[in-house]
Prior knowledge:
Oligomer: single chain
Helix content: 25-40%
Number of strands: 12
Order of helices and strands: EHHEEHEHEEEEEEHHHHEE
Number of helices: 8
Amino acid sequence: MASLPPGLLVDSAWLKAQGISRTSIHDYVQRGWLDRVAPRVYRRTSGPGGGGILRWEAAVVSAQRFASASFHVGGSTALELLGLGHFARLGNEQAIHLYDPEGSIPTWLPKLPTEARFELHKRQLFAAPALGIDWRRLDLGTTRLGGVVPSPEAGEPWDHFLRIAGAERAAIEMMDGLPDSPTFDHADTIFESLTTLRPRLLTQLLETCTSIRAKRLFLFFADRHHHGWEKHVDRAKIDLGRGKRQLVAGGRLDARYQITVPAGMSTKAGEGAQ
């Protein structure tokens, strides 16, 4: 129990690995030391009244920490946590984008009764799996991200850490979901705030990205917003494939990138359809 901070989650397999029997788990629940939040999933209570609402951040931090899962938070969710965007929502429900090409997410995580909906991405988008992904401190009370750390072992036992895509990788990941999640308009609004991306890392990511549509869309939005870093991306290293990609029914074909985009979205922000 000393190694399980209040509010974090573990499954029965982890508890049994610590030498806690099924009978003892039941006893801990009866005594109010553990809160059963789902079948075979438990949370250490923070005091009288239980642990309160189950937060998605605590669930993800727990899965990455105690289930040793290699997935990361990415796309528009990562950009929001980094202060660069807004969560994509379905009604009043947050869509939390988790990227898990190795299939490491424990089966209990997507089933948890959190206030959000987990959207899982299993496709391997980059030939370099860890490029542009960091461990960061996370304040579960304020959901504010702290600085990058080499690994979760770099902190104190009571610190919380989140494996999350940096802004460069998250922006490319977001492009792979268009036009479904997020929409073109939402992505355009987010891209407007991406003024400080690192062109060398962007070049590496785009060079190793396996999604032609994501690369074409990213460069389309880069042309549209023309941030300072845009001219420093080495496009000669980026393979954009061949042929047209229809992304929007009834949209217009962008001649440079051979993709269909919304009819009213020009190659320059603030301009109407051409």
